[in-house]
Amino acid sequence: MLAREATEADAGLLLAWRNDPRTRQASRSTAVITLDEHSAWLRGVLASPDRVLYVVELDGIPVGTVRFDREDEGVWEVSITLAPESRGRGLSASVLAEGERAFTTGHRVRVVTAAVHRDNAASAALFDRAGYAETAPAVDGFRKLRKTVS
């Protein structure tokens, strides 16, 4: 598996994954978004020093994304999305691990957090296996998890 930084050329692929009903169900924003909205968002992400977005590929085929958003100095929130066609193949742990590896190689990171929808048992299990621990009760339906990076 290999994580590469996303580019504007990934816009169509990322939009299709973002608008997938199961992806929206687990997201903070559940509305379908337009190509124009998504393109503006992606340009902002790519230009921001406070966000890093990776496309993770398996044998050259994109299977998911991992995004890191700065919360504080050395503290970043991670988000993961699997391509709909990649679900059920046991790839989520490898996608998350590869995103973390790529990110921590190039950035100063002390802590990685995650917000997991309380009804998303698969995501909760993924982050639990990856060493994240719950830090606070659910807020707005999302559990806050935390992992210290050594």
Number of strand elements: 7
Going by CATH, the architecture would be 3-Layer(aba) Sandwich
Rounded to the nearest angstrom, the radius of gyration is: 14 Å
In sequence order, what are the helices and strands, one letter per element? Answer: EHHHEEEHEHEE
Indicate the CATH topology.
Aminopeptidase
Residue runs with pLDDT of under 50 for 5 or more positions: none
DSSP helix fraction: 25-40%
Give a short synopsis of this structure.
The chain is an alpha+beta fold. It has five helices and seven strands.
Describe this structure in words.
Residues 1-150 form the N-acetyltransferase domain. This is N-acetyltransferase domain-containing protein. GO terms for molecular function: acyltransferase activity, transferring groups other than amino-acyl groups. Helix content is 33%, strand content 35%. By secondary structure, it is of the alpha+beta class. The chain has a single domain, classed as Aminopeptidase, CATH 3.40.630.30. The radius of gyration is 14 Å and the shape is globular.
